[in-house]
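Researcher: If convenient, please comment on what follows.
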Amino acid sequence: MIDELLKKNHKVTFRPHPEHYKRSKTILKTIMDKFDANKDFRFDYDFGNINSMEKAKCIITDISNISFEYMLLLNRPVLYLEGINKIHNKCYSEFVNFESIENKLKRKFGFSFLEKDISKIDMVVRDAIVNFTPKIPRLNHFKEKNFFNYGKTIDEFEKIWEKKIIED
């Protein structure tokens, strides 16, 4: 996928999950060795993700929670590579009628693609960027409906803090 994006003149920042530095050192080294000389490729070693997220027009991920942060905070599109199920709960089958908030976000606002679509990833990216803007009002409504005090946390914190100071 990185190869295809670079061939089609996209700038790519590869930002592995911090756990991969422990578990996938060989794979990360292979990726670095293969693409490091390309001026449009950047390997992000920063454990904090905000700098890379602020610069990105979109992100490509599996069902990682970074998608949640990125889409909700920056109102930008997330592309999901399908076919990678990350189920860590042994009792998952007991909850087949339950849809997680991550899956709701993905279904309503994300853009999914399959491995066979990687050869045309530039079109998938372009379509996601263009087609995300009309979804932003619905995304904002989703945030207001599903998250307590979304966008007002500091105001609520100040009220609680002031009350605490007055009571003491």
Q: What stands out?
A: The mean pLDDT is 87.
